[in-house]
Fold:
Amino acid sequence: MPAPLLAPAFELSLSEVVREMLVRHPDALIVSTCGFTSRELFNAADRPENFYLVGSMGMSAPVALGLALARPERTVIALDGDGSLLMNLSVLPLVAASGTRLLHVVVDNGMHESTGGQSTVQRSDFVALALAAGYRSAVRVETAAELRAAELTEGPALLHALTGPRTDGPGRRVTHTPQEIVERVRTAANRPVR
Structure:
């Protein structure tokens, strides 16, 4: 039986993962899954490059893949949750076959936190699943130091970040309408990369 993926104590948070992606990839187009993940991104840095999927669980990777195919010169990040990816595991071979430089970030707190904290079926080894599907690289991180040190240069790549549940409130809701979000991202995606 494989070793459990649970860390003895959770040192990493969704906030830290979001901040690291924004610092590491300041010009990236970021597609965030629904719920607290989109709220976290919105509150950390509301930018035109952020595509908040307010009510589309399981769709951050497919939407990010579309952007990566349309704009191969851009860094595109799918900011996913464990429950969200579990709803749509069939996206993994699709992303892998695309040959894009997509960075698929899976923030895994072991629960559907946005809907009340129900546990996911089990902690999944998203690194093994991504590599089996054909991702070029994948790594699991459990601490801020591991997150900062993670190297994912070949895409498509997957970063599996084990985190604990939130210790603070979920933050303000995204205030843009879906139409505004689409228009902002469309404009940002069509701007030349700096």
In short: The CA atoms of residues 138 and 158 lie 5 Å apart. The chain has a mean pLDDT of 88. The longest strand covers residues 76-81. The radius of gyration is 15 Å.
